[in-house]
Write the structure tokens for this entry.
Amino acid sequence: LQQKQLPRYQMKYVYWQGDYVAYFLARLFETSNNICFSLQEKILDDNYRRNLCKYLCELNNFSSAINITLSCNSDIQKIRFLTGIAKEQANMEDEEAKATFEQALEITRKPFHKTFWLSEIIMIGKAQVEAGYIEEAKVTLNEVYKIAQTITNQSEQEYILKELENLQVLLQSHENYTQLKIGIDKIFSIQKN
């Protein structure tokens, strides 16, 4: 298969075919990681790679999902895919979730105009809160705030500050929920004794 001319599945054509290819290819990764990695590069565009990563995460094959993500052409796709993978890792209590979030953030630190990445950094911060990584989310929030202070366009600055405010509310509600849950758990443990 690696030697043959194969069709390239692109999102703009028939959606279900590329999705089936991604689904079955994910199951073959257990057999031969290298061959499957080579095949996915030949036959899937970045959009179907997202599906492949999703299926690999369902199979707890996070390292392959990350490698595929890093081979994508678009940095925005990489950021979004890595954030999704990190959320799945956190759901599965995989210790590498924090490192995957950090990989996504590292892409945003490339030497482009910083404000270009703010929406993506905020998305990562929200995902960190949802995954329960509160301290990391606070650092991300700080990073966004520092960049937002450098924005000179008034409407852009207002938009970013509104997004920051939403992230702070999410962060505070998560912290309050966590404190409430700890308090409830203590009450129940006292009652059981």
In short: The radius of gyration is 20 Å. The CA atoms of residues 50 and 81 lie 7 Å apart. DSSP finds nine helices and no strands in the chain.
